[in-house]
């Protein structure tokens, strides 16, 4: 764990939409596969009487924060530290399952976790600090073609080859800011002073690779539906197109599910003004078929 007390934001995205989508019912048992700071879990626990909740997260800091946030619910909440892909889903047990994907604002705002180029920190980016692979390993050990492929596929970065070439020339890199500066210096000025920082896409790509995020999501989409009771709902919030594509197809192709959202649910202008993180959120919901 990091030295400071973990500070998680408790502002869950699409709050009413998630609770309505899960159709939370009294006495129900819910799985929050990404408990984070416990924001959505609290809403679920407060939505109806006698709710039980299983709260999963792979990040130790997140579980510490969630245990504190949800302490008042006592043994109605069970905490599990696990990647949601490795979680042993009990068969036909949950009335609803929620996954709010990706990193939390805590990850981005805690410099020493190495997710953000706004502060100098070791190139880390592990959500589960028990794993050994870090972003520094990916950047310093991958060959040029491999790096370009990662930036293109997972960051949808058009200048992937050019950036990979500069990184290989200038490495080794130890800190987030050193890497961000090298990326900025490798792209044309127009791109350098654009709407988003030129390192944004590369940092997204690295985070996805370090945490094997897309593979974990695929496994989750395969395993989770059988853990729902008939009529139980699964709600998944994604934050970029690579995730949303997997969610859309995973829900649609599951023989156990009926999709309830033809188009993803997105945040209202009012929510975006209050919680900018909700801008890119897409919520999809499906229901386990009765037979
Ligand atoms: C966006 S935050 C969740 C915020 C939470 N819904 C709230 O309201 O406070 C995502 C959380 O999911 C966790 N996470 C991401 N991928 C995971 C995975 N594959 N397995 C388990 N936890 C994961 C992260 O560690 C992070 O704490």
Automatic annotation (TrEMBL):
Q: Where does S-adenosyl-L-methionine bind?
A: 38-40, 57, 84, 100, 107
Carries keyword Glycosyltransferase?
no
For this protein, the Enzyme Commission number is: 2.1.1.199
Q: Which reaction does it catalyse?
A: cytidine(1402) in 16S rRNA + S-adenosyl-L-methionine = N(4)-methylcytidine(1402) in 16S rRNA + S-adenosyl-L-homocysteine + H(+)
Q: Please, which domain of life does this record's source organism belong to?
A: Bacteria
Pfam family for this entry, one: Methyltransf_5
CDD domains annotated for this entry?
A: AdoMet_MTases
Keywords for the protein's UniProt record, in alphabetical order: Cytoplasm, Methyltransferase, rRNA processing, S-adenosyl-L-methionine, Transferase
Asked if the Swiss-Prot or TrEMBL record annotates the protein with the keyword Cytoplasm, the reply is yes
Q: Where in the cell does this protein reside?
A: Cytoplasm
Uppermost EC category: transferase
Family label: Belongs to the methyltransferase superfamily. RsmH family.
Per its UniProt record, what NCBIfam families does this chain match? 16S rRNA (cytosine(1402)-N(4))-methyltransferase RsmH
Role, per record: Specifically methylates the N4 position of cytidine in position 1402 (C1402) of 16S rRNA.
Q: What protein am I looking at?
A: Ribosomal RNA small subunit methyltransferase H
Tell me the classification of the organism that encodes this protein: Bacteria, Bacillati, Cyanobacteriota, Cyanophyceae, Nostocales
Gene symbol of the encoding locus: rsmH
């Amino acid at each position: 764990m990091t030295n400071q007390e973990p500070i998680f934001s408790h502002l869950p995205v699409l709050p009413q939409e998630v609770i309505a989508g899960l159709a939370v019912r009294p006495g129900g048992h819910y799985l929050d596969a990404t408990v984070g700071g416990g924001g959505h879990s609290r809403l679920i626990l407060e939505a109806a009487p006698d709710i039980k909740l299983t709260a999963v997260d792979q990040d130790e800091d997140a579980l510490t924060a969630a245990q504190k946030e949800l302490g008042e619910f006592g043994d109605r909440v069970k905490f599990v530290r696990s990647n949601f892909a490795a979680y042993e889903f009990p068969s036909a047990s949950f009335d609803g399952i929620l996954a709010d994907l990706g990193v939390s604002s805590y990850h981005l705002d805690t410099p020493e976790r190495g997710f953000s180029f706004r502060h100098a920190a070791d190139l880390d980016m592990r959500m589960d600090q028990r794993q050994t692979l870090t972003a520094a390993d990916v950047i310093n050990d991958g060959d040029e073609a491999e790096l370009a492929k990662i930036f293109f596929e997972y960051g949808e970065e058009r200048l992937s080859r050019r950036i990979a070439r500069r990184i290989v020339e200038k490495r080794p890199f130890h800190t987030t800011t050193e890497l961000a500066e090298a990326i900025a210096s490798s792209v044309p000025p127009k791109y350098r002073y654009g709407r988003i920082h030129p390192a944004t896409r590369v940092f997204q790509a690295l985070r996805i690779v370090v945490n094997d995020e897309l593979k974990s999501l695929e496994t989750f989409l395969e395993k989770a539906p059988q853990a729902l009771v008939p009529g139980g709902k699964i709600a998944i919030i994604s934050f970029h197109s690579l995730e949303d594509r997997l969610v859309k197809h995973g829900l649609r192709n599951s023989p156990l599910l009926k999709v309830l959202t033809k188009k993803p649910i997105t945040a209202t202008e009012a929510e975006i003004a209050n919680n900018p993180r909700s801008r890119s959120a897409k919520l999809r919901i499906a229901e386990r078929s009765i037979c």
